[in-house]
Design brief:
Structural class: alpha/beta
Shape: globular
Strand content: 15-25%
Number of helices: 15
Radius of gyration: 20 Å
Order of helices and strands: HEHEHEHEEEHHEHEHEHEHHHHHH
Strand order of the largest sheet: 7-6-8-5-9
Distance between the termini: 45 Å
Amino acid sequence: MKRHLTILSAAAAVVIALTVSGCGGSAAGVDTGGTGAPGANEVKELRYQGWANNVTLPELAQDLGYLGDVKLNWVGNTISGPQDIQSAATGQTDFGGAFAGAVVKLVEAGAPVKAVINYYGEDSKTFNGFYVKEDSPIRTARDFIGKKIAVNTLGAHSEAVINTYLRKNGLSPDEIKQVQLVVVPPNDTEEAIRRGQVDAGALGSILQDKAIANGGLRSVFSDYDLFGTFAGGPYVFRDDFIAQNPNTVRTFTTGVAKAIEWERATPRKEVIARLTKILKERGRNENPSALQYWKSVGVPAKGEIKDEDFSRWEEYLKSAGIIKSGLDTKKLYTNEFNGLLTGSK
């Protein structure tokens, strides 16, 4: 597929920033009391980016009281997973979340980060669909040749899914290159499709359901069609932050795991009411109307990370030049800080 950036440029920039800022040493803002001892005087306030008009799992976990003495410090919003984890890697934030393949790209480029818990995923209720106008001639994979597809960012979830869909349906590498991906903010994708600015677009979760309710669009395929239920991406921390703040990371990770299970076990109306309350009370001048379309947490049980969460994308990662051989998945993640998995709640 056509790209407007070289595949490793953004990740390489992270490595340069790490070198210049010295983030490979002590985590920014960490007070070790002059002893340098891991875990001494751990950070209890985590800087992060949110998503406009949405409530993230860490935000829900904090509202439910699952983060204990760890507080969240919102520093702004993002519209891109890769940008979010790059901010964490360079020390602008303390954690970030993105598509598993984007985490691989960052690590392969030399960024010292590690995934600790999955935060989004797909199931029969919550998934990403690829939509066209009702009267569009696009009905099969081959129909996408020469067409434009809106995605929220390059090198992330939607690109990997599109690449996999086209490849599984028999398109050659040269044919796949003729499918053009166009970066469009998620909140603008529906209108871009309707106005004919793009031929198709990726829509997920709340934005997808809202578009369907407005009528006039249809799905050609979805990531759930391709893979069934699966984890899409994890939250990551820098290695140095984990080393110096293990208890904080454990509290955060376990709190997010509890929030995942709370959403799974709680009636849908109650979840929507809680998310709406959080959004209204935080005072960011947001519109809560889209929250009514929330259906499920999507994330597999307890946010556990598995090898297949990364290896699922191996062929795409090779085709994109991100990896040359097999993945060493063990260097990408750990479940040791998830108390719902280790029993240390």
